[in-house]
Amino acid sequence: MINPQTIWYNWEKNLVETIDQRYLPFRYLILEIRTLEDARFAITEMVVRGAPLIGVTAAYGMYLAACNYSGDDFYEEMLRAAEWLKSSRPTAVNLAFAVNEALSVISEKCTTTQNKQQLFVFAETLKQREIEFSKKIGMYGLELIKATSKSKKSNPVQILTHCNAGRLATIELGTATAPVYLAHQAGIPVHVWVDETRPRNQGARLTAWELAEAGIPYTIIPDNTGGHLMQHNMVDMVIVGSDRTTLNGNVANKIGTYLKALAAADNGIPFYVALPSTSIDWNLNDGFTEIPIEQRDGREVSMMEGLLDNQVHEFRIIPEKSPIANYGFDVTPARLVTGLITERGICKAIREDILNLFPEKK
Ligand code: MRU
Questions:
Q1: Which of 7, 242, 277 has the most ligand 1 atoms within 8 A of CB, as the residue to mutate?
Q2: What is the pTM (predicted TM-score) of this model?
Q3: Active-site residue among 195, 223, 243, 281?
Q4: How far apart are CA 67 and CA 5, in angstroms?
Q5: What pLDDT, in 10s, does the model give residues 260-296?
Q6: Residue 255 C-alpha to ligand 1 middle, in angstroms?
Q7: Which pLDDT score is estimated for 3?
Q8: With contact defined as beta carbons under 8 Å apart, do 63 and 13 qualify?
Q9: Out of 33, 231, 288, 357, which residue is the most buried by the measure of CB atoms under 10 Å away?
Q10: Quick one: which of 217, 123, 103 has its CA closest to 171?
Q11: Residue ranges of domains in the chain, CATH in brackets
């Protein structure tokens, strides 16, 4: 049975379980996370991925670190665990946010048992918060789709998305896909152009899998196709997620997002970024020089996985020993972003408007 959530605490086994995204869409497997090491492995190896899910996994990781520690330096151990987790994937700010918040709920004055309890409550609360954020993002984004549907001569509303900012990247519903799910449920005809998203193909493998599960019409396109579709009036809006958005509205997201934003601007197509506030970096302004851009293993570029005779195989698709550059993310400048769809509403990608929605961050 497909679990409606991406991560959960299994009370019978006393451990955390998650969908192992490395094997989708070919196999649906669950991975058990028992320790801090397991949690870090899940994040670095992309068993879990997507900014909000990385954050929640790290929160559970902090809890598991506490559960498995029996020494006398509990607080020191938690600080060490926090730093180690934070170094697992650098770009998504949700990771540092979750780990720092986890540290803030424990205290040297409390007993280890109390601290463990606090960490567990925090992980569960963060998870619930992300679920709520996705729902709210969906509700606000739905209004955009409704308005587009009304103003169009013919349906469906055509939405292009990049990478996977769907339910697998969050806990439920996703960010970029949340408005799409709600529009589909409301009976508004929608169709999603799914960028395959080389090199790991999160679009072709994961977003397509999710949309198929939900019965939402979609078409997978090679990454280079979006511009052509936009020139031929085949895209009404672009909605993507974000791993880290700075206070002045610059958006770090999966590599290739910037090119889609450029093409959208050139064709007068609205380009929206759907993100929870946990993906906003309140300490950064510019982002171009400050956001750490993850560089991943060249094997993601040189090797391709696929199904042959019902078996999963890995193939090399480039000349042997070719030099490879594999940047995981790029930064889209705020001027190319039509709006940010957050859990508090939609705003322009500018400092004043972001802070108007989140006045407590002023
Ligand atoms: O490297 P990944 O697969 O973790 O990258 C994910 C993305 O870029 C998503 O678009 C982003 O995390 C938004 S998640 C709702």
A1: 242
A2: 0.97
A3: 243
A4: 24
A5: 999 999 999 999 999 999 999 999 988 899 999 999 9
A6: 10
A7: 85
A8: no
A9: 33
A10: 123
A11: 7-129 (1.20.120.420), 134-361 (3.40.50.10470)
